[in-house]
């Protein structure tokens, strides 16, 4: 079988199956032959591991994962891809393709059913339009995965991997840092895809913390505070939180004093430790 990154073959198999890429589903298929082997190698596709993939495309990454891991379970939304996948992945017996929307799917149940007695990792080329919501789903549901290795828009990669307390950070930066450590592995140019998107991409990896290292006393207050602060990131944080939590500005100044912070600080300037400390003071004041 020709390589799936061969553009002539890709066009031929798509045409033969009457398939056209969907902009609404963010379908851009990888045609750079060096990308997926590298992703698989760095993404823990190896003996003893089961790999959860979100979105298969025509199976370029799926194939590389299946070569290396014990098993691959992939959730694919577009059922029109299934006839193509039956052809492109026919040589593998350790792949299960599941039709479904990953945002709505019970991934914890899927992992329990598909990867018994295996370590588990996520490795996927994510559609740009659901990058942050999908990463947050993978983290918030506290799935039993070692690493999450995903290809995302380069700008999103910079935000996801930014240090908390930097100008590049955002609410999703803090959320990722709460659950694990994110690093950028390598860049992927827009010419590596068919059809080519208008932006470059990057592969990042989030290594999940085995337990909560931040000792946040009230997760609900912590994340509510972070979302409120970054929704008005250019404003003084004390004023924003006073409105968000229904606490007087005078009392909120006292809350900031208890946390050892200036009430005029903006949220993007706070480190993770400072955010945790502030959340404890806010939780006590709003109890």
Structural write-up:
α9 (219-231) crosses α10 (237-245), α10 crosses α11 (249-258) and α11 crosses α12 (272-286). Helices cover 40% and strands 18% of the residues. The protein starts with 6 loop residues before the first helix and ends with a helix. Strands 4-3-2-5-6-9-7 form a seven-stranded mixed beta sheet, with helices on both faces. The chain has 287 residues and is an alpha/beta fold. The longest helix has 15 residues, at 272-286. The chain is elongated and about 70 Å long. It has twelve helices and nine strands.
Quick rundown:
This protein has helices at residues 7-16, 35-42, 60-68, 82-88, 107-114, 131-140, 154-161, 171-179, 219-231, 237-245, 249-258, 272-286, and strands at 29-30, 49-54, 71-76, 95-99, 119-125, 147-153, 180-188, 193-194, 201-208. It is an alpha/beta fold and 287 residues long.
Which helices and strands appear, and what pairs or packs with what?
Layout: H1 7-16, E1 29-30, H2 35-42, E2 49-54, H3 60-68, E3 71-76, H4 82-88, E4 95-99, H5 107-114, E5 119-125, H6 131-140, E6 147-153, H7 154-161, H8 171-179, E7 180-188, E8 193-194, E9 201-208, H9 219-231, H10 237-245, H11 249-258, H12 272-286
Parallel strand pairs: 2-3, 2-5, 3-4, 5-6
Antiparallel strand pairs: 1-8, 6-9, 7-9
């Amino acid at each position: 079988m020709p390589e799936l990154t061969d553009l002539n073959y890709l066009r031929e198999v798509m045409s033969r199956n009457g398939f056209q890429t969907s902009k609404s589903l963010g379908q851009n298929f990888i045609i750079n032959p060096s990308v997926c082997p590298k992703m698989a190698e760095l993404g823990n596709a190896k003996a003893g591991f089961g790999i959860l993939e979100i979105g298969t495309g025509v199976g370029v990454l799926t194939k590389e994962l299946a070569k290396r891991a014990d098993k691959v379970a992939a959730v694919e939304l577009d059922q029109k891809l299934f006839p193509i996948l039956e052809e492109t992945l026919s040589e593998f017996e350790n792949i299960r393709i599941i039709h479904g929307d990953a945002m709505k799917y019970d991934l914890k149940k899927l992992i329990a059913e598909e990867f018994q007695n295996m370590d588990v990792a996520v490795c996927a080329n994510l559609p740009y339009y659901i990058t942050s919501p999908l990463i947050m789903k993978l983290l918030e549901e506290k799935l039993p995965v070692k690493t999450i290795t995903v290809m995302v828009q380069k700008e999103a990669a910079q935000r996801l991997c930014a240090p908390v307390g930097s100008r590049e950070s955002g609410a999703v930066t803090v959320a990722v840092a709460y659950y694990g450590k994110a690093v950028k592995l390598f860049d992927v140019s827009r010419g590596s895809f068919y059809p080519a998107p208008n932006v470059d991409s990057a592969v990042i990896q989030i290594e999940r913390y085995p337990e909560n290292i931040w000792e946040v006393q009230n997760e609900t207050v912590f994340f509510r505070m972070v979302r409120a602060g970054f929704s008005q990131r250019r404003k003084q944080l004390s004023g924003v939180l006073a409105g968000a939590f229904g606490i007087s500005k005078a009392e909120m100044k006292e809350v900031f004093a208890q946390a050892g912070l200036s009430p005029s600080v903006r949220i993007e300037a706070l480190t993770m430790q400072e955010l945790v400390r502030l959340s404890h003071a806010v939780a006590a004041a709003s109890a």
